[in-house]
Amino acid sequence: MYITIDGATQSATLEANAAARALVERLRQSPVTVTLNSSGGFEIWGALGFALPTSDQQMTTQPGDIVLYNGSNVCLFYGENSWSYTRLGRIEGLTESELRTFLKAGENGIGVTLSMKNLTAVGHPTSEAEQAVYDLGGRKMAEGAELQGIYIKTIKRYCYEKSSGNFYEPATRLKQRHARRQVCRRCQGGRKRCRENFP
């Protein structure tokens, strides 16, 4: 499952239980957007808008845990709490600090979208989006924004060269530099050593 908050998306591993299976079936129909509020200094929570099967157990939650409370409320934890919940899943791969930032710890009225697809990933370009530029997190860059580093343009990875103001595919740009300097930046060798990269 994917969780999207304010344009940022994280994946969550779901439990193998009836509640999680019912949630997946609901999300396969369409994404669900809920409004969650911070509570107790350890969670954001709120109504799902529908009920799921419960199998409540007394537990002590850990940062990243996702649980069902009273059958129809979802709780996303950035701290610990002991209560009776139905476990739904877990957000993996974030430090506690990153988790607090992602979940907007301490804030209220947080719009959270649950889905089975990554809603912020860059899909296939449409004619309108062909010139759009995205950062590596899949967020569309504002037109005229100052760019530096690596970006995605038309679903390919491009390097933005500030001095020229142009985008280059990394391999193409290396070939151009190689033609001038006769040295491959990847292997630091001449044409014979990098024939594989620059035939």
Outline the structure in words.
There is one protein chain. This protein is α+β, with helices and mostly antiparallel strands. The protein has two domains: 2-115, Cyclophilin, CATH 2.40.100; 127-168, no CATH class. 16% of the residues lie in helices and 35% in strands. The chain has helices at residues 18-29, 96-102, 170-181, and strands at 2-5, 8-14, 32-39, 43-47, 57-60, 65-69, 73-77, 82-91, 110-115, 133-134, 149-153, 156-161, 166-168. Strands 1-2-8-6-7-4-3-9 form an eight-stranded antiparallel β-barrel. Strands 10-11-12-13 form a four-stranded antiparallel sheet. The radius of gyration is 23 Å and the shape is elongated.
